[in-house]
């Protein structure tokens, strides 16, 4: 669990790269500067941890590009104290960013191996979501709804109705929609039955899986 001044320097460089790519939210950039991303990936990739790249992690999943994490975090305009549902805990890096932004995080992972690993690892770094859930992200977390924001970190072939139903009026759902490639899609709930939809460009995510083991 080593984090050195060299790592810090690389994080500062990564934040500059993300800034050049259009990330302007200072709280998001500060989270990138602070979180030791090299600890979230296999040590064999450590030398590349602060490049804007995705890397494989356990259970055939990936840790997303830092740009993708920063873009999703910036797009949601997260405010301290907001209640956020994260679908796809994965390595926990996005979870850590959400927590650095002082939100109240509920995170669902359906790969049991990842769920166990990440739910033990994150608290060691001082990151404690309100709840870690092993379950089906398509169903969301009805018992804790409604949420201010819902962030989906895997490619969904369609938009789950359950997730739309769990956003507060005025709240937002950000979800990559599509099969092999996805369109980042933002839904803003305008009223109990009305949603505003924005398509924000193409991204590539691992697929969102249904039905937990």
From TrEMBL:
It is found in: Cytoplasm. GO terms for biological process: methylation; protein repair. Its EC number is 2.1.1.77. It holds the Pfam family PCMT. GO terms for molecular function: protein-L-isoaspartate (D-aspartate) O-methyltransferase activity. PANTHER family: PROTEIN-L-ISOASPARTATE O-METHYLTRANSFERASE, PROTEIN-L-ISOASPARTATE(D-ASPARTATE) O-METHYLTRANSFERASE. Catalyzes the methyl esterification of L-isoaspartyl residues in peptides and proteins that result from spontaneous decomposition of normal L-aspartyl and L-asparaginyl residues. It plays a role in the repair and/or degradation of damaged proteins. This is Protein-L-isoaspartate O-methyltransferase. It comes from Tenacibaculum pelagium.
């Amino acid at each position: 669990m080593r984090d050195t001044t060299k790592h810090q320097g690389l994080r500062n460089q990564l934040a500059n790269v993300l800034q050049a790519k259009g990330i302007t939210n200072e709280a998001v950039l500060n989270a990138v500067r602070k979180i030791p991303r090299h600890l979230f990936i296999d040590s064999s990739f450590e030398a590349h941890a602060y490049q804007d790249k995705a890397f494989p992690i356990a259970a055939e999943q990936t840790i997303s590009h830092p740009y993708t994490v920063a873009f999703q975090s910036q797009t949601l305009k997260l405010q301290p104290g907001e209640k956020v549902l994260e679908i796809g805990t994965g390595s926990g890096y996005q979870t850590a960013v959400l927590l650095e932004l002082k939100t109240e995080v509920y995170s669902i992972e359906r790969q049991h191996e990842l769920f166990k690993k990440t739910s033990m690892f994150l608290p060691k770094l001082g990151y404690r979501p309100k709840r870690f859930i092993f379950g089906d992200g398509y169903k969301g977390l009805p018992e804790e709804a409604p949420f201010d924001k819902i962030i989906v970190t895997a490619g969904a072939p369609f938009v789950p109705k359950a997730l739309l139903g769990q956003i507060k009026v005025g709240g937002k759902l950000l979800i990559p929609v599509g099969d092999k490639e996805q369109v980042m899609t933002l839904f803003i709930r305008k009223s109990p039955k009305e949603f505003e939809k924005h398509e924000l460009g193409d991204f590539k995510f691992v697929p969102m899986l249904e039905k937990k083991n």
